[in-house]
Amino acid sequence: MMKIEDLSFRYGDKQIFSDLSLVIPDAGACIMGPSGRGKTTLLFLIGGLLIPEKGIIEPKPQRPAFVFQEDRLLPWYPVLKNVTVVNNNAGEERALQILDALEIPSDMKPDELSGGMKRRVALARALYYEGDMLFLDEPFKGLDTRLREIAADLILREHKPFFITTHQAEEAEMLKIPVIDI
Amino acid sequence: MVRDGDFWRATGTTLLRVLSGYLLGIIAGAALSLITSFSKMADTFISPVIRIVRATPVASFIILALLWMGKSNVPVFMSMLMVVPVIWGNLSEEFASTDKDLLQMGRAYGFTKLEQLRHIYIPSAVPGFRAATLTSLGLAWKSGIAAEVLCQPKYAIGSDLYYSKIYLETPSLFAWTAVVIIMSYILEKLIRHIITVFEGRKVS
User: Fold this and answer.
1) If I label B170, which of A38, A106, B27, B58 is the partner at 20 to 30 A Cα–Cα?
2) Residue B17 and residue B156: Cα distance in Å, rounded?
């Protein structure tokens, strides 16, 4: 179980969380809520990318793998390099397998990709990283049903705790994880 | 003039001096920008000095440099001195404006400082660096020849320009000026070509 106790966080004057306490099952959770409520912030706090004002999050991930909402691909590298750049030990073969499963050509540059393709490259990078927890910020945005199912299957096959933010309840059902409403 | 061996010796020597200063300036400017961008303490000490160099008239430096070094080294030093602030300024600005989201991505994926530099900072700075190398080439060329005019080293376009002036040889003055312009044009084309080839290799 992951425990979040008395978590508070603010961006400047804007208080995002105040004494938030949660218990999250080992498998992870789907963070849902309206826009601007702090889903991404909570994801970043759990993943250790942001430091809370106060409160405890335990256990902390040792090697978190992120899919960011804005993809954050390196525009000067082709797809394959964008994936392999995060892990020097996993080998190109594995990267090609993940990219192949997600149906993305490995030699294209990010500016040649559609929004959905960029999303899949960001997911491929997170899977290739071999982290101990996955943090996925709206990972299915721009994907059709078939590609969502392929991506969900790959995520589930990792057998790692994962956290996902979404606006759609069916994504939580597809990934078989509990929902946290914030 | 072109049939004269001294013409080619003067042109070749000037070219060598300016290119040496230019390359040294690029290396020094890039190194200084790395140091000042990633060390606040170094920035405190080095940045004001570079700003002073940028604001000081070329002629003052040429005369000062003449006191410290041999006259054939002054054009090299002056070319370098004019290139350093341009490369330093552009690269420092590029480093400072590197996409914060990409840097956060790098941190999230455990990039070391060297990996952040290699995969994020340096590729982000390439457009600014390219612009700075082209801008500073003209400066290196002009300041190198200005230094030659004031120092009159043996075999130099600047020295020949100076002698044309004192002997009132107007056609020779125009001819040397034309040589300067043509050489500057050829050099810029050459540097553009080298940058394009280098970038093509980096991408593939």
Assistant:
1) B58
2) 9
* Cα dihedral B6→B9→B11→B16 (10° resolution): -160
Tell me: the pLDDT tens digits for B6-37?
888 988 999 999 999 999 999 999 999 999 99
For chain B, give me the number of helices (H) and strands (E)? Answer: 9, 0
Q: pLDDT tens across A14-52, in order?
A: 999 999 999 998 889 999 988 888 999 999 999 999 999
**What pLDDT sits at residue B169?**
84
Does ipTM come in above 0.85?
yes
Written as six digits, the tokens of B87 are 């490369």
Instruction: Please give the Cα distance from B142 to B140 (Å, whole number).
Output: 6
CATH class of B5-203: mainly alpha
Nearest to A102 by CA among A67, A154, A51: A154
> A49 and B104 in contact by Cβ < 8 A?
yes
Report H helices in A113-144.
115-128
Q: Which residue in chain A has the smallest CA separation from B108?
A: A49
